[in-house]
Amino acid sequence: MMGPGRFGDILNRETVKPRNLSETLGRLGKYFGRFWYMIALAVTFIIISTWTQVTSPELAGQTTDCFLVPTGGSAFASFFPQTDSNQQTVSSCWLGTTEDPSTLSYSRQIIYTAFHAGGYEVPDIAIATTEQRVEALFRLIIIMISMYVLGAVLTGATFFAMAWTGQHVLRELRLEVFEKLHALSLSYYADHKAGDLMSRITNDSSAIEQAFSFALVQVFGGALTLVWVAYNMLTSSLPFALLSLAVAPLMFIATVWFSEQARKAFRTSREEIGNVNTELQETISSVREVQAFNRADENIEQFKEVNAANRDANIRAVAYTSALAPTLEAFSYLGLAIVTGVGGWYLLTGDALFGATVTLGLVITFLAYVQRFNQPIQQIAVLWTNIQNAIAGAERIFTILDETPAVVDKPQAKEMTEIKGRVEFTEVSHHYEDGVPVLNKVSFAAEPGQTVAIVGPTGAGKTTIINLLPRFYDVTHGSVKIDGVDVRDVTVESLRKQIGIVLQDTFLFSTSVMENIRFGKPDATDEEVFAAAKLANADSFIARLPEKYETVLGERGSGLSQGQRQLLSIARAALADPRVLILDEATSSVDTRTERLIQKAFDALLQSRTSFVIAHRLSTIRNADQILVLKDGQIIERGKHEELLAKKGFYYDLYMSQFKKQEEVEAVL
Question: How many CB atoms lie within 10 A of CB 335?
């Protein structure tokens, strides 16, 4: 039986019932159906191994009735009537007395054939010599051992076949989800946490693989065992079978009740451990404030309370899981006691049980049947919960696969040919949430080679403008055109190939410097990479790295300064050689020398390209061909630097509050 620790461990997982069981199982079936041959093999193995398990109790009874106690009265001679003892033996010992095996069940025919293989004949057991019984007993033991070995081998083969299938399904599911995540628009990621998406592609898919590779096999095997054992019991002796199965409903009720109570308790426990983690995270994050205000004692007391609540919840949960195993064990022993007591009574008295003959072998057979029958009940109840969790996880995965990207190619979308770089926004409006506009009827045009600086307070809509150009989002109203072509009329891939992006939050991959620069143009030669790095003023610091261009960077470029990471991102954009360039040129966290290198790299990168810059530096704004001043999603001013200053409007106020001091510092430097 499954111990309370293992039982509790399984129930400690979040139990979520699937919303649409049949639909989800149908979709999962399509994935597993691709490997139907392995599943068919596993089912065959399960059937054969289950047959070995349910047949072994009957062989134990044959061992007793045929060879150890071959007559009904030999073991209890003083208690049994001495009439019809041979008839009793004939009716119970089919291995040694049945002359026509065709009268046996198919399962018994297999054993009979194996037992009598090679022309070996067993004389009437009632008159057989001791040597003949020993020889026959030895042959039967060999058959029983062979069946045990066969069952064990097939059980292992079953798990291998299903694990192989599960791993292949897991690979395909993860691959499809991974491909889907790349196809989804940025709006999807704005509404979904990265940790949750990662959990779906890792934890949920693993739960499916484990449930259907192991739990489902055990549930199917356990259910088959229950049905098969019950059938054998009913066909062997209906009265004895009904007595033996009397405790089965009680075991089922106890399992369901304890499982439900334990799941509720563990759910509370998980909530409480969440409170513990929250308390820890807040305390660790605020340790400076806690020490500064001498609040350590109060925090300790508060942590004691949440920790005690978690302890109490876990104790309640463990109490239920610990109680189930002995409860089922007690019912199992009760079933064994019924078989032993009733069987012993009729053996001692020699009476028939509702007209059926009772032999010692029959009692031994039913004792083994009861043990075989009781074992799968708890296992099925617990593992079915595991399967339900997996199906609920599959629903979460299918939710991603069913998601429709917000930005998709039109059916007749064409490839965008090489562009010159004229960009036009016409009456563009956009909102992320219905009724909350971020841009409101924005119109402007940028000629090829021009630099457009975008300035304005936080939330004015600057980032939204640069997100609409490469179609990270689609406009709600109006149009965005490049060289007179609406960006929605061309394929997203061909559009983005012509646009380069350098963002303030630079992302570098855990690979070599060379591959990070080459990311935007995988077929670039080493010489092209070197040239791009030189243009971006990144070659000098790369030369100081341990392996130079072959140096493998840490996660997100750890080990490099923010300025060095930005220089690499500029080199990456330069290598792609786009006709339209989008820059977020923030350099607030870098030293003066690195800032100058970045600015020189920006100046080189902007040459002969249509550029849109979310400007943070005065030099960029001053040199821009036009400046767009945004406020509340609208362009309230536009023009060149000197023109806007002369108006003494919103841009003038912005300049005086944000850029005037920067200009004075630059003059000193």
Answer: 25
